[in-house]
Amino acid sequence: MTIYFNREGDHDHNGLLFALTANVPVLRYLEARSRMVPPANLAALHAAALPRAHQLGIIPLPTRYQDARVHPLVRPLVIRATAGAEVQVVLRNKISERWIGLHLVADGYAVKTQDGSDVGKNPHSLTPPHGTRIYTWQCRHEGVFPFHDGGNYSGGEDGTNAHGLFGALVIEPAGSIWRDPVSGRRSRRLDGSFRQLDGLYLDVLPEGDAQNPDVTISPTQLPTHHWPPPSPIPIFTPSATASLSSFFTTSPSFAPPMMRNRKKTRVPTQVRAAGTAITGAATACRRSCRFPTALSL
Question: What's 77-207's CATH class?
Answer without folding.
Answer: mainly beta
